[in-house]
């Protein structure tokens, strides 16, 4: 099994992100149902390790919190462009949640994640050289993108399998976060 831990996005946010996905012929846009915010990539594991990951995540204790997406960026540039993404507004609670998950998964036996965590939602991937010169325009045109804050009230363990149309992500287990009265945390919702 190929696994990762992520935040599912509300449908309203997936729709807004899908609205950004246009204007670049060489982009392989991520399907709306696959848009998510990864907290920890686990990788290819056997069923025993998957069970250990599940057991570790079952012990997660964390309060829900609001999160907003903000800005756009890229991994790589020019001929080495790999992906376009939407960023996350600075959020110490998100960083603490990610660190807590990293700690739990290391205790379950997984090696530490070698890369520094950069929260983002991947919008598009690129394979080979990017032939259209519109990436800079895309980044400039969408630099001010910002979502309304939405509640982070669960963490999801996803499996990933490759299909003809790209990766297919399937939620395997959902781990709820402790919530307070949503009317207090998110007035007007």
What's a concise summary of this model?
This protein is an alpha+beta fold. The chain contains 5 helices and 10 strands. 22% of the residues are buried.
Question: Could you walk me through the main structural features you see in this protein, from its secondary elements to its overall organization?
Answer:
With about 190 residues, this protein is α+β, with helices and mostly antiparallel strands. It has one domain (about 1-180): Cyclic phosphodiesterase (Cyclic Phosphodiesterase, Chain: A), CATH 3.90.1140.10. The chain is built from five helices and ten strands; from the N terminus they run E-H-E-E-H-E-E-E-H-E-H-E-E-E-H. It has helices at about 10-20, 45-60, 90-105, 135-140, 180-185; strands spanning about 1-10, 30, 35-45, 65, 70-75, 85-90, 120-125, 150, 155-165, 165-175. The strands form three sheets. Strands 3-1-9-10 form a four-stranded antiparallel beta sheet, with helices on one face. A four-stranded antiparallel beta sheet has the order 2-7-6-5, covered by helices on one side. The longest helix is centred in the middle third of the chain and has 16 residues, at about 90-105. It is globular, with a radius of gyration of 17 Å. The termini are far apart. The relative contact order is 0.25. The mean pLDDT is about 90.
Helix content: 25-40%
Radius of gyration over C-alpha positions, nearest whole angstrom:
17 Å
Residue windows where pLDDT falls under 50 for at least 5 positions: none
Summarize the biggest pleated sheet.
4 strands, antiparallel
CATH architecture annotation name: Alpha-Beta Complex
Spatially, the strands of the biggest sheet line up as: 3-1-9-10
Number of helices: 5
Total number of domains:
1
* CATH class membership: Alpha Beta
Shape: globular
Given helix and strand content, the structural type is: alpha+beta
> What is the N-to-C order of secondary-structure elements (H for helix, E for strand)?
EHEEHEEEHEHEEEH
**CATH topology label:** Cyclic Phosphodiesterase, Chain: A
| First-last Cα distance | 38 Å
On the 0-100 scale, what is the average pLDDT?
A: 91
SS elements, strand count: 10
The CATH superfamily name is Cyclic phosphodiesterase
Strand content: 25-35%
